[in-house]
């Protein structure tokens, strides 16, 4: 089917590590094909050429942490037909969301000798707190296979196929023995959304929640099981306070273990 | 009076958000600012109160391009604190995964971010329209690096399998075998890359830098060694903060690092190469010579060739490590936390990455200091621009602006790392 023009893709960065947009460049086998289907109109990590908007699909990486970025995200929304957040920062506030539990002024003075030069907001917030988001892609980092799926879905006007079930399902699918049942290794798999391919258990390690809470997670029950395995409250708090610390179910669970 | 400004509000083909601002008055550069507006993320602050075991996973999130570097520096610092030495095949596997990151990160920069400047393309996508085979070779070479990281680390970005003391799971010889075929191809492709980058047009530009890098008695440096320079520095990693100091300047969210009493210095591939040339294997040395490099390289535009030489070294080293591999009995060395301060410095793709952790007897982090390579190069990048711009004032504005960008990209700056770092303005008056 021939199109009148190639759809325009834009990639935007807010507070983040660049890893999720790198996922696109890590699609070594698909990248030139994607570049053939789409006009890469604004992707500053890869190109100094900027084609003016509006854009058909905007991928947004990172969280909102500065007054300037809180304004900029509205400009991005205005020039985007579809806006998809990529990764835990854009979707849940990211690891920098740990400031939301503390006083940011104290944080600034720990890192910077002259805190007065630093302009920052008290909280790190996900994109959906500021503008309407068409789709949220999870992960720290995102899965490049899911990224290709999302781009392809938006190109064809269909819903992306990214299952909301738990990491446990992925372990069963790949035939990994349950690390929690068989080895007593504490694992966040039962409350964490699938998408990574259940990597950690296949390396004899418990899941640490990169993809954030699954649909209807029973975090309280899982914390009980962790306690049975001898994990201290302090460590349960720490594991829920990771890259998706500000996702509602994880935030509540970590707060339940605060003394 | 002739004056002008060169401005680039959002520097492209670098990792992170920065800008350039250069002001020129009477053919003199009066101001150069490499502005870093990448928002601060406060890693050193929220590491306080975390368990030592979490440091490699948390600090990896500083940078999606070089997460292994963060994991390595963190682990070495923590093991230093607890008096543990990770040796033998576990050490070899750490070198192997670091080879993977160097190949992936350097190849990304050589082909996708830097080469388009030399050939006059806005991006590798534009370059691919005329040079599809070259770009494909770059992508496949990058993929070979990512395959090492994925096999050993579980995934290419923020790997999950490295931990303080070693790994969660170590591969069998058989599991490593498929990498061998792939890396033989990659070594040939890397050799081609060295030859190809040597043909690119380089501006005449050499400065007398103070190069700083790790130096190891037997090896081209990755994880260990003393910190040395071509101007007499020779210290242990523990002495880092006695000799280097971070300054906070108003135009940057990244701290500028300087050598006390001496000022700017240069870290990264050119520094490593120039201080450790004789540690490269004969194959790699010969390829470097054939590409026209001496044992020391002082032209930052040629860093693209040096980076390619390091990719060749990493492929060669990875093949050696795989050939000599024996599966260790234990995936990790056990350790007991104790109240102590630990120091670690490893060679990230962009240069030395320093970590220091102060811990209590439970292994909880009380204080953390992280100094990434790009903040160490910031002042040197600004100095390069001060030297480069006055010699090229006759160029049209757009060309000069582009060349200023290229001068910055010579360093493969990683702004996400340095902000704990880039925007470009050139103003002519």
Description:
The complex is a heterodimer of chains A (about 260) and B (about 425). The longest helix of chain A is centred in the middle third of the chain and has 13 residues, at about 145-155. Chain A has about 260 residues and is an alpha/beta fold. In chain A, strand 3, helix 3 and strand 4 form a beta-alpha-beta unit. Chain A has twelve helices and five strands. In chain A, strands 2-1-3-4-5 form a five-stranded parallel sheet, with helices on both faces. With about 425 residues, chain B is α+β, with helices and mostly antiparallel strands. Chain B has one domain (about 5-429): Cytochrome-c3 Hydrogenase, chain B, CATH 1.10.645. In chain B, about 45% of the residues lie in helices and about 15% in strands. In chain B, the strands form five sheets. In chain B, strands 1, 2, 3 and 14 form a four-stranded mixed sheet that branches. A three-stranded antiparallel sheet of chain B has the order 6-7-8, with helices on one face. In chain B, a hairpin with an 8-residue loop joins strand 9 (about 245) and strand 10 (about 255-260). The longest helix of chain B has about 30 residues, at about 90-120. Classes of the chains: A alpha/beta (about 260), B alpha+beta (about 425).
């Amino acid at each position: 089917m021939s199109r009148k023009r190639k759809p325009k893709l834009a990639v935007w960065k807010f507070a983040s590590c660049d890893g999720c947009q790198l996922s696109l460049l890590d699609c070594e086998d698909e990248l030139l094909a994607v570049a053939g289907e789409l006009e890469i109109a604004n992707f500053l990590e890869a190109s100094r050429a900027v084609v003016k908007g509006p854009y058909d699909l905007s991928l947004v990486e990172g969280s909102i942490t500065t007054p300037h970025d809180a304004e900029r995200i509205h400009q991005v929304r205005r020039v985007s037909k579809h806006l998809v957040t990529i990764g835990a920062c854009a979707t849940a506030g990211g690891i920098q969301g740990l400031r939301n539990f503390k006083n940011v002024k104290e944080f600034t003075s720990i890192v910077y000798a002259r805190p007065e030069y630093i302009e920052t907001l008290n909280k790190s917030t996900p994109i959906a707190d500021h503008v309407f988001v068409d789709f949220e892609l999870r992960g720290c980092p995102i899965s490049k296979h899911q990224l290709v799926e999302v781009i392809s879905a938006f190109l064809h006007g269909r819903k992306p196929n990214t299952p909301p079930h738990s990491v446990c399902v992925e372990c069963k699918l790949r035939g990994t023995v349950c690390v929690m049942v068989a080895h007593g290794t504490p694992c966040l798999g039962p409350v964490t959304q699938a998408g990574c391919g259940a990597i950690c258990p296949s390396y004899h390690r418990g899941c640490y929640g990169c993809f954030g809470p699954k649909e209807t997670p029973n975090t309280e029950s899982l914390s009980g099981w962790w306690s049975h395995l001898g994990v201290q409250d302090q460590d349960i708090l720490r594991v829920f306070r990771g890259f998706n610390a500000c996702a509602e179910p994880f935030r509540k669970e970590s707060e339940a273990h605060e003394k | 009076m002739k004056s002008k400004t060169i401005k680039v509000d959002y520097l492209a083909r670098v990792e992170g958000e920065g800008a350039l601002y250069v002001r020129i008055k009477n053919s003199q550069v009066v101001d150069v600012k490499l502005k870093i507006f990448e928002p601060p993320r406060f890693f050193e602050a929220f590491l306080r109160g975390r368990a030592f075991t979490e440091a490699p996973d948390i600090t990896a999130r500083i940078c999606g391009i070089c997460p292994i570097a963060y994991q390595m520096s963190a682990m070495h610092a923590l093991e230093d604190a607890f008096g543990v030495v990770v040796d033998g095949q576990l050490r070899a596997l750490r070198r192997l995964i670091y080879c993977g990151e160097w190949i992936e990160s350097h190849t990304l920069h050589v082909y996708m971010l830097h080469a388009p400047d030399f050939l006059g393309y806005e991006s590798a996508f534009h370059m691919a329209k005329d040079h599809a085979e070259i770009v494909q070779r770059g992508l496949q070479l990058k993929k070979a690096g990512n395959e090492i990281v994925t096999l050993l680390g579980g995934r290419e970005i923020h790997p999950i399998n490295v931990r303080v003391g070693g790994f969660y799971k170590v591969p069998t010889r058989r599991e490593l075998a498929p990498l061998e075929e792939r890396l033989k191809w990659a070594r040939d492709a890397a050799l081609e890359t060295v030859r190809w980058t040597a043909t690119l047009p380089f501006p005449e530009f050499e400065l007398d830098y103070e190069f700083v890098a790790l130096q190891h008695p037997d090896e081209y440096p990755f994880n260990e060694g003393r910190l040395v320079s071509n101007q007499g520095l020779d210290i242990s990693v523990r002495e880092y903060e006695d000799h280097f100091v971070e300054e906070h300047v108003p135009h940057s969210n990244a701290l500028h690092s300087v050598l006390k009493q001496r000022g700017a210095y240069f870290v990264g591939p050119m520094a490593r190469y120039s201080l450790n040339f004789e540690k490269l294997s004969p194959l790699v040395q010969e390829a470097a010579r054939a590409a026209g490099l001496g044992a020391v390289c002082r032209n930052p535009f040629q860093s693209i060739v040096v980076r390619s030489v390091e990719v060749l070294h990493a492929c060669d080293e990875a093949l050696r490590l795989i050939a000599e591999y024996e599966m260790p009995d234990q995936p990790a060395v056990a350790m007991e936390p104790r109240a102590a301060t630990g120091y670690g410095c490893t060679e990230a793709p962009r240069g030395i990455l320093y970590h220091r952790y102060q811990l209590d007897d439970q292994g909880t982090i009380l204080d953390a200091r992280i100094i990434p390579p790009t903040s160490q190069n910031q002042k040197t990048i600004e100095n390069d621009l001060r030297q480069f711009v006055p010699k090229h004032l006759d160029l049209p504005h757009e060309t000069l602006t582009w060349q200023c960008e290229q001068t910055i990209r010579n360093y493969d700056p990683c702004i996400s790392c340095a902000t704990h770092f880039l925007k470009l303005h050139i103003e002519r008056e």
